[in-house]
Design goal:
Number of strands: 15
Radius of gyration: 24 Å
Helix content: 25-40%
Shape: elongated
Structural class: alpha/beta
Order of helices and strands: HHEEEHEEHEEEEEHEEEHEHHEHH
Largest sheet: 6 strands, parallel
């Protein structure tokens, strides 16, 4: 530790023993951290006025030796780290800090940020266990934290109708939030080259990931606990187990399995998105066959193939994975803004006469256009 209480690796720029880990599930990771530490501080962006590096609700955990997550880096995070370590060494339960990014911190964002800090010790393990359990409840709940004279009083209660997932009342010094992340479910079918490259990227993105393949030996041994793995003889049967509004990605080693998965997903019709690896010719063949098997033209417009952002032509598995991850993030941003995600031009890959979307007979499929089906 440095004289200011900051871990020496961060203070002096020395090498860390391990990479700075992301914060995916703060109640769970706080419980894990308190198995080896006496106390920690959760640092939360409570309110943002103007521009800031992170949004309200972003948070990190800080102990005497570790930091998990980030609130955006730079001088804002540095000041928050110092405040967190000062709180660790005090008897207070929490505090708020108001930081002006431009005049006070020299950051070009120029906004005003209120940072909420609350100290958890081993005495708070029952509370953290209750919050962690509430994440898995079928009934929406809210954690209400009220700061009063340096101490924080917690209430875990049912969520009110139409209550937002995160709110801060500066006048009442009260933070109200859903007990943990509301990451959208992402189910990835296929653990081949592209599947493995993709999971290495999306595991640090805001998704609740389930990874499925029939070949158990392909899953790496060092998977993070935040990732759910299903090694199933019949991956198609797993489609019915996925929650509503799941984002599906189909990247398996078999075109027949790809087809059966797409058909099962389209028949559900309660999913957020469906991406299929392949070429425009594969997309045309699949749509034609799915139509013959009873899938409506309207449902077929939801099949995104070739999956991926832009017109990337590289067939490196990692390049395809980056393109798919970028499109997932575009979809998240579009959904938050209430916009429809722009898909690749449907008419190019359509093989249906009088298609509900393009309304024309099929066109010849350009050979080799955005063909990624060989990189499975």
């Amino acid at each position: 530790m440095s004289a200011r209480g900051i871990p020496l690796a961060l203070e002096l720029g020395a090498s860390l023993e391990q990479p700075l880990p992301p914060l995916r599930n703060w109640p769970q990771q706080a419980l894990e951290l308190l198995t080896s530490e006496d106390a920690l501080v959760r640092v939360v962006i409570a309110d943002v006025r103007g521009s800031a590096p992170r949004e309200a609700g972003a948070c990190m955990l800080v102990s005497s030796a570790r930091m998990i997550g980030t609130i955006g880096g730079g001088n804002l995070e540095w000041q928050a780290l110092q405040a967190a370590h000062a709180l660790l060494q005090s008897q207070a339960g929490g505090r708020t800090v108001r930081l002006v990014l431009g005049t006070e911190l020299g950051q070009c964002c120029g906004g005003v940020v209120t940072v909420w800090l609350n100290r958890f010790s081993t005495d708070d393990l029952p509370l953290l266990r209750a919050v962690h359990k509430a994440q898995r409840s079928r009934h929406a709940q809210r954690l209400e934290s009220r700061l009063d004279d340096g101490q924080i009083h917690y209430t875990l209660r049912p969520a009110a109708a139409q209550e937002t997932a995160f709110a801060f009342d500066d006048a009442a010094q009260t933070l109200t939030e859903a007990p943990g992340p509301a990451h959208p479910p992402l189910w990835v079918f296929g653990a081949g080259h592209v599947g493995q490259a993709l999971v290495r990227i999306v595991v640090d993105l805001p998704f609740a990931i389930t990874w499925i393949d029939s070949r158990a030996g392909l899953f790496p041994a060092d998977l993070p606990v935040s990732l759910s793995v299903l090694a199933l003889v019949d991956p198609v049967a797993a489609v019915a187990r996925a929650p509503s509004q799941t984002r599906f990605l189909v990247l398996t080693h078999s075109h027949q399995l790809d087809y059966e998965l797409c058909r099962a997903i389209l028949e559900r019709n309660d999913f957020a998105s469906l991406g299929l690896i392949g070429s425009t010719s594969k997309a045309a063949r699949f749509r034609s066959r799915l139509f013959r098997d009873g899938i409506t033209p309207q449902a077929l417009t939801r099949l995104n193939c070739p999956v991926g952002a832009g017109n990337a032509t590289s067939k490196w598995p990692a390049a395809i994975a980056v393109s798919i991850a970028a499109q997932l993030l575009q979809g998240n941003a579009a959904k938050r803004a209430g916009l429809a995600l722009r898909r690749p031009h449907h008419e190019v890959s359509c093989s249906l006469n009088n298609c509900a979307e393009c309304g024309q007979a099929s066109r010849p499929v350009p050979a080799g256009k955005n063909n990624n089906e060989k990189n499975i």
